[in-house]
Amino acid sequence: MEANEEMIKWLLNDSGESISAISKATGLAWSTVSDLKKEVTPIGNTSFENASKLTKYAKKIKGVKEMENKNYVLRTMEEGELQDIKGFDTVEEVHAYLVDNTDKLFGWIQESEPERELPEFRDAGTLREINSILSDYDYSWWTIELEEN
Questions:
Q1: Any idea of the CA torsion for 41, 43, 49, 52, to the nearest 10 degrees?
Q2: Is residue 29 within 8 Å of 47, Cβ to Cβ?
Q3: Which of the two ends of the chain, N or C, has the fewest CB atoms closer than 10 A to its terminal CB?
Q4: Are residues 61 and 77 in the same domain?
Q5: Same structural domain for residues 82 and 144?
Q6: Which domain, by its residues, includes 30?
Q7: With bands split at pLDDT 50, 70 and 90, how would you rate the model's confidence at 134?
Q8: Is the pLDDT of residue 38 over 90?
């Protein structure tokens, strides 16, 4: 868990998210979020647990907003929750990222399935080929999705 005051300030003041949306997404009481936004309660005085929830949601929203201008979006989902999001302008950038980060993204698989080979992206040059490989590593609880905007 992480609490980041700058991310919380951005969420409350600059993200465009309403108090109601933040409250619903984080599970915090509407009044708690409102007091933080209006600075009735300083961010530094909120609990670490609440600050962590706000930071997590801020990162998610910021990532989504930054991806709106990208041509390709790569999302890592675990248990239905967004874990990571990256944006790319070209398929070539996506390809290079996957080649360079295969161990980081998929290395955990070999801990539970030592016989399973990691995906090989070197020869995948098109969106269709990349998605075909990604679909082979789509678990019901964990997946990486590549979408074209």
A1: 150
A2: no
A3: N
A4: no
A5: yes
A6: 5-67
A7: very high
A8: yes
